[in-house]
Amino acid sequence: MSLDLRYNGWRPPTEEWKKWVKKLQPQFEYLWVQTGIDNAIKASTYEVKRDDELILELAKRWCSKTNTFVFPWGESTLTLEDTNICFGYSLLGCCVSNPLMNSEQVKEEQELMEARRTFNSSKAKKVNQRAWMMYFMETESSKVEHEAFLVYWLSRFVFPADSCNTISKSVIPIAIHLAHGNRIALAPAVLASIYRDLSLLNSIITKNATTSMTSLRVTIWAPFQLVQIWALERFLALNPRRYTNGHGLPKVARWDGVKVLENNNLKKDLDIAGFGNGFVWQPYENSPSVEVYNERDMWKCYNPCLDEELLSFAQCLRACELVGIGCREKYLPHRVAMQFGVDQDISDNVASRYYDWWKQLKSSEERDNKGVKFEKDQMECSDDEVS
Fold first, then answer.
1. pLDDT tens digits, one per residue of 152-176
2. Rounded to an integer, what distance in angstroms lies between the CA atom of residue 288 and that of residue 339?
3. Mind listing the pLDDT tens digit for each residue in 120-148?
4. Of the residues 192, 199, 238, 368, which has the fewest C-beta atoms closer than 10 A?
5. What is the pLDDT of residues 37-77, one digit of tens each?
6. What is the DSSP letter of 63?
7. CA end-to-end distance (rounded Å), the chain
8. Which pLDDT does position 386 carry in this prediction?
9. Which H or E run contains 201?
10. Residue 304, Cβ density class (10 Å: 0-12 exposed, 13-18 middle, ≥19 buried)
């Protein structure tokens, strides 16, 4: 049976979008930095070439109960740290469902909703992303161009709408918060959507192996670029060539337009990576910037923004529920503690494999010992007969 897999959340940047970013950057970059979306907006101007085979092989190893990849050598997963470093999404701030706070923000929401209704009443009967962008980018007198810019960015790259290439009304309050300098914790919400769709894809793959249907279709709405970059940064066998980042750029920049090398041993490379040096538990330089000294129980931080850095580090380490748009997912970082430089428990799967191996080894030794004892008894019997 064939699997018709559509990645509707994997949206490439257009040339018009790059121009819009350059247009507004001089005026609003200070605000993007303040709200923690500066690198995330820059990340949306890069294109990651998709490797379907890699995504599917990873999804086969996904466990929806723990939200981790389970390999023969242990567990690993995408964490809040990956979401922050690779795509620049903020770990700190209010929840994405935070309501608007004053009449000015409500007025802006009404103006954007009215613009959305205008597009929705057009012949196309949908709010096309490109039409939305061109309208606000070319309307110099618009007082909400920056808010509309953020609505487009959120709809296309962060929380892709349930209909391809359309503007989502659910992101309008988030855009207004950001435009007013209010930080929103986008990283947990984005990661929740990725966990959700990895579980969906895993269940579809399992169904695909057992059903008698001729074709099975599944649509992925989460930005799965992060799944691929997570793997490229950690599995050395997948890495076509290492690039260095420009100063202040997110990790996605190093994979802009890079085609993943064809790998005929992909399954094997994934399954043996952790037994040697093929898997990099901590691939990011200076991350975490907080060093843990167990012998003295002291933390050392190289970031002058110590309070914010410690709080971000704590967010990455804390088990919690990730709240996204229309989804909630478990976050269990203690299961992948080695990704934060801390000792990690052996997963149940690995422990059972080890137990099975140990039983097989002991059974083999017992058979060998019985064989030796039998040969020894036979020799002793022969000696008695001779005497």
1. 999 999 998 766 788 998 999 999 9
2. 10
3. 765 656 788 999 999 999 887 788 999 99
4. 368
5. 999 999 999 999 999 999 999 999 999 999 999 999 999 99
6. E
7. 73
8. 45
9. helix 186-210
10. exposed
| pLDDT at residue 147, as a whole number | 96
10 Å CB burial of residue 238 (0-12, 13-18, 19+) is: buried
Mean pLDDT of 256-277: 89
| 3-state secondary structure at position 304 | coil
Convert 3-23 to b/e letters by CB count within 10 Å (16 or more is b).
Answer: bebebbbbbebeeebeebbee
The values of phi and psi at residue 218, to 5°, are -140, 140
Q: Tokens 């229309």 belong to which residue? A: 326
Distance CA 286, CA 264 (A): 33
**Structure confidence at residue 221 (pLDDT):** 94
What pLDDT shows up at residue 261?
75
Q: How far apart are CA 11 and CA 19, in angstroms?
A: 17
Distance between CA atoms of residues 207 and 83, nearest Å: 29
Q: Do the Cβ atoms of 6 and 219 come closer than 8 Å?
A: yes
| Dist CA 255 CA 240 (whole Å) | 10
Please give the C-alpha separations between residue 127 and each of 15, 33, 136, 160, 176, in angstroms, as whole numbers: 20, 29, 13, 13, 18
The pTM for the full model equals: 0.84
